[in-house]
Amino acid sequence: MSVAGRAVRETFSGLPAAYWWLWTSTLVNRLGGFVVTFLAMYLTVERSFSASYAGLVAALYGLGGSVAAVIGGVLSDRIGRRATLLAASLATAASTAVLGLVTQPTAIAVTACGVGLASNASRPAVSAMMADLVAPEDQIRAHSLNYWAVNVGFGVSAAAAGLISAHGWVWLFLGDALTTLLCAMVVFVRVPETRPSEAGTGGTAPVIGLSQVCRDRPFMALVALTFLLGTIIQQAFTTLPVDMGRSGFGASDYGRVVALNGLLIVLLQIPLARWAGKRGTDAVLPLGALLLGWGFGLTAFAGTSGPAGPSGSVWLYALSVTVWTLGEIVYTPASAAAVAGLSPLPARGRYQGVHALAWAAASLVGPAAGGAAMDRFGAGVVWGACAVVGTAAAGGFWALTRRPV
Description:
By secondary structure, the protein is mainly alpha-helical. Helices cover 80% and strands 0% of the residues. The protein has helices at residues 3-12, 17-31, 35-46, 51-78, 81-99, 105-133, 139-165, 170-190, 196-199, 210-214, 217-234, 239-246, 251-277, 281-297, 299-302, 314-342, 348-377, 379-401. The longest helix is centred in the last third of the chain and has 30 residues, at 348-377. Mean pLDDT is 87; it is low at 305-309.
């Protein structure tokens, strides 16, 4: 067998069939993830609402997702991962279809919050299910493959959404709802319940409440570090385009640069999954934090136009995106795997829910903090702060993974 063939086999083999059906449901769901990406454009172009109203709706969607992170985690431990995933998928399909039909501003805002609540409630269930199904030594690889499916689905759905919207915006909402139903069907037919009490292991384990989860110091340290890195990642979609615009670049330049992120994830996630899986979270987490922090830090040099003018530094923007994307590729799955390793069997859903809450909180705080810092101190300070935070997070992960047992 060739070296390439052996690498492919090592990457994809050894994972249980139930995991691959769960992976398939994720891919199907993301292939139809039209609405979130194009919601702002739908509200401003099709419905003629203001940009501020579109921002409010997006914030309400994020608020629903933040609440759902904890609710979904608790339900995953109480009623089961499969039941939570099915209920969340059905609720997401129904609320997404309604969102495409309502026209009143208040109804749209409330429904968008409901969509965020329903769609994000499934995430802790999926992560807990993967932790139940996959052996500890394969956690990074399993989460990497799942993250790859998410990004492939996102790329395809973003491309298809433009074609579908030409036939009417309502079809975006109905198509999204249909793929979510297909996701639920795959789970219903092929994915078993994996909660320990129902899977035949650990049924007598004591219940662990959220207060106990929050008193788990190593885990909460991981959550805090995740929040810090999440605020850095948010700069890619908020302060980065502003910085490029102020440096003389247009929307097409930003589009090409940020498209590198998705392209690199699709091309490199699977090869790097095998590499990261062999090294474990104690090596991968600090490395990912450094690449994220210093990748965004490089943007400070890209924003300074040289003698060639603005176009002469677009490659530095591309370089910075490449570096922090490598960090995202290795860090994100390793972070989820670390949560699986820290969480006890009866509380895996709760642990994944609190961890997901860190990402949701970062999506709310990161854009506001980055924008305010850019206006007050300038872009150089923002990108320098990203490098400092990434370095500090790397040190935190290094200390966390080497703590005495």
